[in-house]
Design brief:
Low-confidence stretches: 1-7
Helix content: 40-55%
Largest sheet: 5 strands, mixed
Number of helices: 7
Number of strands: 11
Order of helices and strands: HEEHHHHHHEEEEEEEEE
Strand order of the largest sheet: 5-11-10-7-8
Number of domains: 2
Radius of gyration: 42 Å
Distance between the termini: 151 Å
Mean pLDDT: 86
Length: 359
Amino acid sequence: MTDRDRDDTYYDSATGERNRRQKKTLPKPLLRLLVVLAAIVIAVVVIVVVARSAIHSGEAADYQRYMTAVAEILQKSDTVGAELTKLLTSPADTNRTQVQTQLDEFIATSEQLELDAKALDAPKDLVEQSIHQMFLLVMSFRQIGLTELKPALMNALEVQDTEVSAEQISHALYYLTNSDFLYDEVFLARATDILQQKNLDGVTVPSTAFVEDLDLASRPSVLSILEGLRGIGSLQAVHGVAVGKVVVMPDEKEITADGTFNLTSSDHLVFRVTVENQGNMEEKNVKVVVTLQGDSAEPQKVTVEVPVIKAKNSVNVDVEGLNPTAYGEVALLVVKVGPVPDEKVNTNNSIEAHVIFKL
């Protein structure tokens, strides 16, 4: 007898006959219920899997957008770092004004990049674990370092004693080198761990190198930088102002040195003096003195002070309050500007001429 026979038949002792067993089947309503429940379970599983996949995909997209934006900011920042290093270690043929301009551009760029970093929409986990904040600190370090470097460096090129200046430059450069350290050791490492925990294999954390030589901020390196820069004559501080032009109004007549000029006698006499900054340093509190001396009266003198004149720039100053000398009298007019501290050439600081006032 086979297993099938045993399962499907049985022996009836009363009749002596072999009968087939009736197979048990589930009631149709219950069967339909089980089918529906199975379909629901399958649907729930599919929905969960799809939802998890969508969440994972959306999360990956968020992280990818963030890391792409970080990479773009760092690329621009690293370009500034490379240009700065070149300026400090291989300045070639440059002058003080160009150095100042470059440093100003570096500072402006770093300030904008810091603002761009603050405007990023960082993933929630990076914010809650202070990882995004570390990136902001990195960009802040770069901005602070560049801002502090400019005055320290320009001052070092002007003064003879480099001890204090070298220390200030080193302090500023340490902000820049430490920005790389913070990024690599904290932001990159912790952000990478987050990506691995979330299995976001397609997303990577960008690298950065604002300063390739981490010893750039050391004292020996700073002294070497200063020695190289000081060897470039065009980088040395040059102070000097000059009289560019003198125009007398209301006649609008230009006065030149050693000449004699007829002027209209007026109650509104104005001497418009053009003051030129011929050096490569910004000058402050520059004095402009106009003296008018006739034979029949005491000399008249009026002084006006110019708050600031940028290097290689000029400003016009109106000097008022002088009265015309006696009619027909030959008077001496002296116009003088400066001198400013450390000015070595003063032959162009003043002009003298004679004027005769007529009715």
